[in-house]
């Protein structure tokens, strides 16, 4: 699975609507409203690199209210959460 972190600048008056529209785009797994230099961060997960262009350039950038995006492609994931859930039997600690 290929993961891209997309920083999204929006029309500031439409952040909730843009976030909801982005969350409906196939390939977008999560959308976060954040503080800082951008309004939203969208997590895009696809099987092949070629699909990134379809999702990000083809759909995310075309959502009404998206002003600009900057995309970072993840090389590796380091997550205590993922490791602990992989070995969990579903029992509480």
Largest sheet: 4 strands, antiparallel
The chain-level mean pLDDT equals 90
Radius of gyration: 15 Å
Element string (H = helix, E = strand): EHEEHEH
Tally of alpha and pi helices: 3
Strand content of the residues, in percent? 25-35%
End-to-end distance: 30 Å
Write out the strand line-up for the largest beta sheet, numbering strands in chain order. 2-3-1-4
**Overall morphology:** globular
Number of domains: 1
Classify the fold: give the CATH topology. Answer: Alpha-Beta Plaits
How many extended strands? Answer: 4
CATH-defined architecture: 2-Layer Sandwich
Low-confidence stretches: none
At the fourth level of CATH, the homologous superfamily is: Lrp/AsnC effector binding domain/regulation of amino acid metabolism (RAM) domain
Helix content: 25-40%
Task: Record the SSE blueprint.
Layout: E1 2-10, H1 15-23, E2 28-33, E3 40-46, H2 49-57, E4 66-73, H3 80-86
Question: Could you characterize what this model shows?
Answer:
The chain has 93 residues and is α+β, with helices and mostly antiparallel strands. It has one domain (2-86): Alpha-Beta Plaits (2-Layer Sandwich). It has helices at 15-23, 49-57, 80-86, and strands spanning 2-10, 28-33, 40-46, 66-73. The termini are far apart. The protein has a 4-stranded antiparallel sheet with strand order 2-3-1-4.
Could you name the key traits of this structure?
globular; four-stranded antiparallel sheet; alpha+beta; 4 strands; 27% helix; single chain; Alpha-Beta Plaits; 32% strand; 93 residues; 3 helices
């Amino acid at each position: 699975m290929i993961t891209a972190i997309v920083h999204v600048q929006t029309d500031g008056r439409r952040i909730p609507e843009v976030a909801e529209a982005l969350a409906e785009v196939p390939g977008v797994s999560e959308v976060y409203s954040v503080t800082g230099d951008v309004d939203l961060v969208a997590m895009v997960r696809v099987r092949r690199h070629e699909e990134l262009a379809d999702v990000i350039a083809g759909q995310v950038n075309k959502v009404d209210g998206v002003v600009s995006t900057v995309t970072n492609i993840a090389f590796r994931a380091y997550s205590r959460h993922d490791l602990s859930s992989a070995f969990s039997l579903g029992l509480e600690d």
